[in-house]
Amino acid sequence: MQTTYIETQQISFQDFKNQILEDYRLGRISREMSYLGRREVLTGKAKFGIFGDGKELPQLAMAKVFRNGDFRSGYYRDQTFALAVDALTVESFFAQLYADTSVEREPASAGRQMNGHFATRSLNEDGSWKDLTAQKNISSDISPTAGQMPRLLGLAQASKIYKSVKFEGSEKFSNEGNEIAFGTIGDASTAEGHFWETLNAACALQVPMIVSIWDDGYGISVPTKNQRAKADIAEMLSGFQRKEGENQGCEIIQVKAWDYPALLDAYARAEQFARVESVPVVVHVIEVTQPQGHSTSGSHERYKNEERLSWESQFDGLVKFREWVLNYSIEIEGKEEIIASVEELDAIDDEAKKIVKAGQKNAWENYQKTITDLIKSVLPLVENLKGQNSEIEGYIGQFNKLVSKAKKDIFHLTRKALLATRGTSSAERTQLMQKYNEVFEIEKDNYSSHLYSQSQWKAENVKEVKPVYSDSSEDVDGRVVVRNNFDKIFEKYPETLVFGEDAGNIGDVNQGLEGMQEKYGEVRVADTGIREATILGQGIGMAMRGLRPIAEIQYLDYILYCLQGMSDDLATVQYRTKGGQKAPVIIRTRGHRLEGVWHSGSPMAGILNLSKGILVLVPRNLTKAAGFYNTMLQSDDPAVIVECLNGYRLKEKQPDNLGEFTVPVGQIEVTKEGKDVTLVTYGSTWRVVMDAADELEKLGISAEVIDVQSLIPFDLTNEIAESVKRTNRLVVIDEDVEGGTSAFILQQILEKQKAFRYLDSDPLTIAANDHRPAYASDGDYFSKPSSDDMVEKIYAMFNETNPQKYPAIF
């Protein structure tokens, strides 16, 4: 087991002195970074700045108990902490401020995130995992207030799981489960539901988690008294304080941000609780100052009075730290020892300024060199075209007048030159075109790569293994197929676990996990409280630490509770780190064609549009669903799999190769061949479409039915366009609202696959009404597309072109 800070503090005075001075040095460097960073923004070199000045001391104290293998899930003011754990340098800090797209110079996000968003790289260049126990880990920050909290729960729970779960390679992710997950949050953001849901879940699960609340008394301009029921969050949380002998609740520690020795003690005690006893801890850091205000967008003088500003100046953490250092003395063997003199601290202050200025200068020069090199490679080629169009010289003149040039300016110039010389053919234009294509590919990688996995384990690379059937294959309820497949999964992948509301003891509400908890234990098949946002958060955090979680959201409608986390966190993990981190969590849910306003919604369009970065898989039955689970557990992409809620009691033939067969992502299936019209659908609606297709056959219309199966990625081989080429008519049928998923599918087919070229009739979408369905079967019939709706609307297409053969129905 790792030792704790308390256990390692038997040191000499000289070592003690060196540690204090190193803290003072780091604190001063961090403060100078904040000061210079603000100036860089205000002088126009950077777009925006938000800094960690005022929080130096508590972050230095927190860093002392942060060990290899530990994780942090925080927000954008923790630069001192990142410096102290070697996750940040002065140069990388300014590289991020300038949005440098070099991973080497800005490893947190390669310029994709604004400053203050920190991350360590969990992955090698090929997408494989590094040894996370050999480094200090920061899960990539996000800006949405309290959005980092659900993920924190999963990062902490992973340590608890690793105490009992082992698998090949698990030693790279945990040292016997002795890691702590550290969270940081501003005091105003504790008003968000994600904070309360996370803390509640952590107290129930008893996970090793330390949450630091930086309390500066304001949420931008709004004082704390207007943020919460009580200004003192520690007082509000008093009911969460654990009682002796009970295995619930948390420890609460309150400490002043400017009291260095008290901060060291607070974090040492917090570490003992979390690392040794696996108890969540809240460290409420009060009397935090913000010397430069909230951000570069405004001044805190607008909302803080003179008295408050004077107090902040007096109780600035670094000011008080300096006072403490200068006032410290101790007698050792009859000799008075001090830590440092005024002159020594002044020298450290001067050194900090020089270090920061040098780092900023290097970062700026490296960033500028990227742009100047681009200009040098492209501008001469543009100038070669001046003789071919008189406008080009003017474009070059405008470009040269720019005081500050960015990549976009050289690309704009190049594209204007190519536009001006359209229709001409010359060696000079060809050379410019070749250079443009070359540099555009580089910038495409800089700005648009890694939305999905680019590793060898990406879902698209998982080969199809078809279900195997024999004479002994049984017809069983669909829920039995998925249940028995889960049994094989848990046996095959010891790192896989599932959790959700009712997922454990009763085997989920539809019995798709029946008997799994009894067989594999409460750690791997677990019940949770009713708290969807943190169910997702558990999945994200666990997946970031090498586990393969299946986070169950009981019904598709309830996924709205986790949509923020899906959109802002999970979907962007690989993108915002440019392939530096991944979280291959599978979100299991069920829906479609159920009855009642609150259980029959189809928020697929929201999922599609808000969660690009997550695969969206919509199997039509439970065998297909099982195949998708088998596929995704071989992949490092995250996915949401929507099981058909009305399919659990329908009979399916159970494959003999459970746990082995796969359904490929991005591939459609033609479930009925036809020659007159192509019907495209997915999920539970597929059964209704098949019924309608049979009715249409009786009316002389041969319909080809296509099950999309996978919305993201969508029909990678353009097979739907080939179908439309044969039938010359297209109908998209969906139970989502008008303009929802049907619009997405139509855009993919008509625009991307260019199937419009083959149409003899207007394309048709048949979707649900814009309201939620009313209760019972009649509600479904009158709210979502029925077989009657489909037959009549599709028949009308043929009536329009050949009314004699297809006379009007009404």
TrEMBL record:
Residues 476-650 form the Transketolase-like pyrimidine-binding domain. InterPro entries: DH_E1, THDP-binding, Transketo_C/PFOR_II, Transketolase-like_Pyr-bd, Transketolase_C. One of its GO terms (molecular function) is pyruvate dehydrogenase (acetyl-transferring) activity. It is an enzyme of class 1 (oxidoreductase). Pfam families: E1_dh, Transket_pyr, Transketolase_C. The keyword DNA repair does not apply. It comes from the Bacteria. Its EC number is 1.2.4.1. Gene3D superfamilies: 3.40.50.920, 3.40.50.970. Keywords: Oxidoreductase, Pyruvate, Thiamine pyrophosphate. The keyword Ion transport does not apply. Its cofactor is thiamine diphosphate. E1 component of the 2-oxoglutarate dehydrogenase (OGDH) complex which catalyzes the decarboxylation of 2-oxoglutarate, the first step in the conversion of 2-oxoglutarate to succinyl-CoA and CO(2). This is Pyruvate dehydrogenase E1 component subunit beta. It comes from Chryseobacterium carnipullorum. The gene is pdhB.
